[in-house]
Amino acid sequence: MPKVYVSVTCLLILVAILGCRDEGYEKKKDTKETMVSTRITALPKTIISPKDNPPSPEKEELGKLLFFDPILSGNKDVACATCHHPSTGYAEFLDLSIGPNAEGLGSRRKFKTDHDIPLVKRNAQTVINTAFNGINASHKYDPENATMFWDDRAKSLEKQALEPIKAFEEMRGHGYTEEEILDEVVDRLKAIPEYEKLFEAAFGEVSITIENMAKAIAAFERTLVTNNSRFDKYMRGDDEAILISEKEGFELFKKVGCVNCHNGPMFSDYKMHVLGAPENNKLGYIDAGFKDTFAFRTPTLRNLRFTAPYMHNGSLPNLQRVLEFYEDISNGKVRNTNVPKEKFDPFVRELELSVKEMSLIISFLNTLNDDSFSKEIPEAVPSDLSVGGNIE
């Protein structure tokens, strides 16, 4: 009888210990899952502009003409719209963009026979909704310090607008140095009477400067907003805006861990993460990303229908391949020999993604598409050059 009593006591103690261990494990797991804010909300219905660049119809119209005018490029053959055209969602269907000394639009764009200009280093991100870059789940963001580019090398749309003009492979081409090109473009604009009138209307005086040129382009880009997708309507209370299968996909998106990096109203934490995406062999060299760490900024998941192919170098052609890539790296499979799995972002190890869940997640991602952005193209630009550059 005493032996039985001791055995039962030991059993009860053992159960209690295991119960405490399980409880502690759950608490630890819960703490881990709540280390990052993963709240998702609809996009705001209004945008915030920098204090020194308030919007106006005149400024936005000037910025639009500049955006489509190839006079901003060294050889007058490339415009901002060449790689960010409204017909392709202000992005393009190319893995790596093609800049000067080329012709055609999107997937039809080709270099001319005699060229020594390299491909653009990275995939062209859409301009749509860049007005919200840096926004968090509480709808707070600073447009004067908003993160731009895959490697966060510029802050604000105003600073971003000038970088492609200075880049050899994007717009500058041959004939001018990086230090010369902006002054050259300003001199060209000053020589066109219509631009003098447009700048005066936008800024209150004839002030064609590098700074005002950037402000006008940024003001136009802030008009390119899609904040009324089916998902936005759903998050604002319209339960019928998305299908049951899409709601299931949304829950899976959160459950498997995608939400750890793709959160907030833009589905981006705007942070750098190391994933080890496959290299694009067309580039001809290794792109080591942010500060040579192979990290790249989390892109938005909005309007993915217009932004294929995906990843920083366009190496993955469709969403199915993207999810398969995430499944691979979550299981420790290396897809880029320059990035060992030990360097993978910690969030990657928390992903729990399987093939059977992918179709539902993709169906949810489609609720983030919104084609209500302006597709209007100017009939002409003040320079009388080809609208959008050499894209025919």
Describe this structure in words.
This protein has 392 residues and is mainly α. The protein has two domains: 57-221, Cytochrome Bc1 Complex, Chain D, domain 2; 230-368, Orthogonal Bundle (Cytochrome Bc1 Complex, Chain D, domain 2), CATH 1.10.760. The chain has 14 helices and six strands. It has a two-stranded antiparallel sheet.
For this entry, give a set of tags.
392 residues; disordered N terminus; two-stranded antiparallel sheet; two-stranded antiparallel ribbon; Cytochrome Bc1 Complex, Chain D, domain 2; 14 helices; 36% helix; mainly alpha
Short account of what is shown:
The chain is mostly helical and 392 residues long. Helix content is 36%, strand content 4%.
Q: How would you characterize the largest beta sheet? A: 2 strands, antiparallel
CATH class of the largest domain: Mainly Alpha
Give the CATH superfamily of the largest domain: Cytochrome c-like domain
Which CATH architecture of the largest domain is right? Orthogonal Bundle
According to CATH, what is the topology of the largest domain?
Answer: Cytochrome Bc1 Complex, Chain D, domain 2
Topology:
Layout: H1 2-33, H2 57-68, H3 80-83, E1 102-103, E2 110-111, E3 147-148, E4 154-155, H4 157-160, H5 163-166, H6 168-172, H7 181-190, H8 193-203, H9 210-221, H10 230-235, H11 244-256, E5 272-274, E6 295-297, H12 319-330, H13 346-350, H14 355-365
Antiparallel strand pairs: 1-2, 3-4, 5-6
Helix pairs in contact: 2-8, 2-9, 11-14, 12-14
